[in-house]
Amino acid sequence: MTPETIATIILLGSFLVMILLRFPIAYAVGISTVLCLVYQGEMLTQVPIQMVRGVWSFSLMAVPFFITMGVLMGSGGISDKLIALANSLVGWMRGGLAMVNIVASYFFGGISGSASADTASLGSILIPMMVDEGYDVDFSTAVTITSSCEGLLVPPSHNMVIYATSAGGISVGALFMAGYIPGAILAISLMVGSYIISVKRNYPKGERFSIMNFVKQLGKSIWALLAVLIVVVGVVGGMFTATESAAIAVIYSLFVSVFIYKGLNWKGVWNALTSCIDTLAIVLILISISGAFGYCLTKLHVPAKAAMLITSVSSNPVVIALLLNLILLVLGMIMDMAPIILIATPILLPVATSIGISPVQFGIMVVLNCGIGLLTPPVGAVLFIGSAVAKRPMEKVVKATLPFYVCMLIALLLITFIPQISLWLPRVAGFNV
Questions:
Q1: I need a labelling partner for 330 at 20 to 30 A (CA). Which of 31, 93, 234, 428 fits?
Q2: Which phi and psi (to 5°) does residue 402 adopt?
Q3: How far apart are CA 313 and CA 236, in angstroms?
Q4: What CA–CA distance (Å, rounded) separates 106 from 116?
Q5: Residue 6 lies in a domain
Q6: CA 39 to chain centre
Q7: What pLDDT, on the 0 to 100 scale, is given for residue 32?
Q8: For residue 433, is it within any domain?
């Protein structure tokens, strides 16, 4: 074996071993990087140099702001209003509260950008509500955790910003626009699955649809929904960069949460900001240390070798696309979302573009695959949060989630093989994708 091959084995092999041993992901990335550099005889000063380069990006400044906006709005009393809005829209259907859960996640996800926040916030309200109305608790939990992944696709999503930085030269505005229809496809897929189960189990309907009630609830929720409008219109219209729009959205979210909805006092704001710091510390450490890991990957030509390996299996674009999804799904079962985006994007994106998949479309695929990973053991963070909120054993929740995994995979395949689902809206908005 050549020294380059041995260095690659050390880098990737030690990383996988530490992941399986349940090392914290930042330690696994950092230690494997150091081992690789030591073997190659490089100065370890490359580690801090590449860590600084990893976060030396203006677009990445949007990540802290989007996380802060999501925490402020999530703590500011908007959950009840978005649930009421969703109920006025779809509560009349069979299994109405399940439909409300899914649609509310679409609305709330556009504000929080976090599946975990969605599950914790909406789940604590909707799961007990569904159980009181006669829904099975495990079914209620399964609907909550799977629908929370809509927020990863619906802008503004900080994971899209991380992907844009990792991919290099991808417009954040194009990614934001690309997420709306895939998020809706995922929601519709989950609603179809929920409806079939609700009919079989004879779950109840809600009140009849009323246009007056819908307009009334829309009026109450409009302040929250405007936060998303500020970000998306500002970025797509070229009025702000993603970072500037995120900063403006934080100020707007603070104003709405404290003075309009009055769900937060100043002590609550301080607690929300403290929570943001905990989350940001984790995210930014991962981004920085992944910069050093990516340096080793590039120097060892791992992306080119991975492309050759995958294309050697088959030259059929359909088979290669399925392999890319399979790799991302497996990674999602053992790693958190941000590290997958940071580490896998430079490796797999060249393969995706070689078979005609747009970098924007591939970004949507990556995010949805990672979202499914958040619901699968052994590392599924959202699965754990849902189980904790519902106070149910994880195994029972997984069993109830099985039909919804099928719904999510159907949505993933549609997004993979019908590029227009992801690319039509960005093209309408004038992006060259």
A1: 31
A2: -50, -45
A3: 39
A4: 14
A5: no
A6: 36
A7: 93
A8: no
Q: What is the pTM of this model?
A: 0.83
Contact yes or no for 148/115 (Cβ under 8 A) = yes
What's the structural domain count of the chain? Answer: 1
In angstroms, the CA 68 to CA 268 distance is: 13
pLDDT score, position 423: 95
Q: Which residues fall within 8 angstroms of residue 65, CB to CB, at 6 or more apart?
A: 243, 246, 247, 249, 250
Judge whether 403 and 163 are in contact, CB under 8 Å: no
pLDDT of residue 58: 66
Whole-number Cα distances in Å, 170 to 163, 272, 290, 344: 8, 31, 19, 16
Where in the sequence is the domain holding 63, given as residue range(s)? Answer: 45-428
* φ, ψ of residue 59 in degrees (nearest 5): -60, -30
Report yes or no on 144 lying in a domain: yes
pLDDT of residue 112: 67
- The pair of structure tokens assigned to 117 is 């926040």
What whole-number distance in Å separates Cα of residue 113 and Cα of residue 178?
Answer: 15
Q: Does some domain include residue 35? A: no
Prior bond of 3 cis (ω within 30°) = no
Whats the size of the chain, residue-wise? 433
